[in-house]
Write a structure and sequence with these properties.
alpha/beta; 5 helices; about 15% strand
């Protein structure tokens, strides 16, 4: 990872249900094992609760609660029961990237099980896995600099839009 860009504490990829989340975990684990996700301490896949669609806003809150539970309750099954001060303290020190990828891919049915985020796209191959939207998006997002405050950072992004920019250069131009 670039010395000027600190690691992200969490990369979270959302899924619409447990089945899609399991597929995402397999695809992401393959990339982690090949060293393709440097700069991230923990990659999490978070499905909408109970397989019920809760939308991007609901999913964002669900992801943040998931992280707070990991951070404040040590990942125990019992939900963390801490108040807003503890939440602010935890979130104020963490870099969290949430990529919403829980779509059904209705217009691209062959990619429904793996979601649009793992659709093959043209470009340099990531090796044996080929190049997917995930492989093109994630490095761009991981290249985002710290906020000027130097504190915590939560970035929420769409997993079905290919954005290409040089984060280090374009963010402060």
């Amino acid at each position: 990872m670039n010395a000027l860009i600190p690691e992200w504490d969490y990369l979270i990829v959302t899924a619409s249900n447990d089945k899609q989340a399991a597929a995402y975990r397999r695809l992401i684990d393959a990339r982690v094992s090949l060293g393709m996700l440097g700069g991230v301490k923990s990659v999490q896949v978070v499905a909408d609760p109970g397989g019920r669609r809760i939308g991007s806003g609901g999913s964002t809150v669900h992801c943040l609660l998931h992280i707070l539970n990991l951070e404040l309750a040590g990942g125990n099954k019992k939900r963390a029961r801490f108040g807003p001060e503890a939440w602010a303290k935890a979130l104020g020190r963490l870099r969290i990237l949430i990529v919403h990828a829980g779509g059904d891919s209705k217009r691209l049915p062959p990619y429904g099980p793996c979601g649009k985020i793992f659709v093959p796209v043209p470009g340099e191959s990531g090796g044996a896995l080929g190049s997917t939207l995930f492989d093109r998006l994630i490095p761009t997002y991981l290249g985002l600099p710290l906020p000027l405050s130097g504190g915590g950072q939560v970035v929420v992004a769409s997993g079905d839009v290919l954005l290409e920019f040089d984060a280090a250069k374009d963010m402060f131009a």
